[in-house]
Recover the amino acids of this structure.
């Protein structure tokens, strides 16, 4: 074993601020390898200190006072820092020795890992067909997406937000405003946004909130766009609500459906209601038990109207009648009908409208 230490005449390790061992040179290597530079099975290099600094900053535009004390300088980052290994572990974890094994115990209290740069890439692509010039600069290559990236945390935030320094939490920034022109893009052949339990039961909430929200199934060219062939947007749930907030305090001003063909199918009941959901005098169309019922303060049918099948009219005012068959009635008297006029008791089912929980 070879030790390089800084000790005083009494053999005590120097701990004064000026105590330092410095090794300087154009190129330096610290190796735990065999003579032929192959790896030793148990080779290891350890750096241990309360603070470890790996610095690749240059030193420029230095200014000193009359006493030679540095007043100002610039430290631009330079060079390349490469870490290459089959397994790379970066952690802020407390450990303990137990049963002869050093094992992870818990997250370090108030620990934080920060990555700060103009560009940060996390890439698990498979590299192939690379080529380099005589100076070692890459000239071509293929990168095929492969592998897996896993992010696991109780709270995950992705943002493009400008912020200010927060003295109460120096590791985080106090949000100030959305970064102008910024965007977040997720792109893949298949994507899943899943809020379900490990056994597949839906739970939790997924919120999409923006001034404009678009759901598209479209092909885009340089200067064109078209519907994706056999594209489909599907929404399936036990209950689906459009146009109203959960607490019923807000209501959309307009809901519009526009297509070459629109089909609505209610296997049990279908109804369209106009008015206040709490009112009993709403106008509505009710389709139930293979029957169609229409109610309103006033109903108008414009254009050529054909009624097929038996028709019952309780009270009718007709300006002009043309009868091609036989007109019969027990209540015809001087051309005026005098039959009964029952009052309609038909009401829409508004229970579902109230159940927007």
């Amino acid at each position: 074993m070879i030790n390089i230490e800084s000790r005083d005449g009494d053999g005590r390790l120097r701990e004064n601020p000026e105590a330092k061992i410095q090794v300087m040179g154009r190129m330096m290597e610290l190796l735990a390898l065999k003579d032929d530079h192959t790896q030793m099975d148990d080779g290891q290099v350890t750096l241990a200190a309360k603070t470890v600094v790996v610095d690749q900053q240059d030193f420029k535009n230095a200014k000193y006072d009359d006493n030679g004390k540095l007043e100002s300088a610039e430290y631009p980052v330079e060079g390349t820092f490469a870490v290459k290994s089959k397994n790379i572990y970066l952690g802020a974890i407390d450990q303990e020795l137990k049963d002869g094994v050093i094992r992870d115990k818990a997250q370090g209290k108030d620990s934080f890992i920060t990555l700060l740069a103009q560009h940060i890439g996390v890439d698990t692509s498979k590299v192939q067909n690379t080529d380099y010039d005589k100076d070692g600069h890459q000239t071509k290559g293929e990168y095929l997406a492969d592998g897996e990236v896993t992010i696991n945390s109780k709270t995950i935030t992705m943002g493009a937000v400008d912020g200010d320094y927060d003295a109460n939490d120096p590791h985080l920034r106090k949000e100030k405003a959305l970064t102008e022109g910024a965007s977040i893009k997720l792109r893949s052949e298949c994507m899943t946004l899943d809020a379900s339990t490990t056994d597949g039961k839906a739970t939790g909430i997924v919120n999409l909130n923006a001034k404009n929200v678009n759901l598209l199934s479209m092909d885009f060219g340089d200067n064109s766009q078209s519907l994706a062939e056999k594209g489909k947007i599907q929404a399936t749930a036990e209950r689906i609500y459009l146009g109203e907030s959960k607490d019923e305090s807000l209501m959309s001003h307009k809901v519009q459906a526009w297509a070459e063909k629109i089909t609505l199918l209610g296997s049990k009941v279908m109804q369209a209601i106009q008015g206040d959901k709490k009112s009993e005098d709403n106008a509505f169309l009710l389709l139930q038990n293979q029957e169609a019922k229409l109610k309103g303060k006033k109903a108008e049918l414009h254009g050529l109207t054909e009624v097929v099948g038996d028709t019952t009219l309780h009270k009718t005012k007709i300006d002009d009648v043309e009868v091609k068959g036989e007109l019969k009635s027990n209540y015809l008297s001087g051309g005026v009908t005098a039959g009964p006029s029952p009052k309609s008791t038909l009401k829409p089912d508004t229970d579902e409208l109230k159940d927007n929980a």
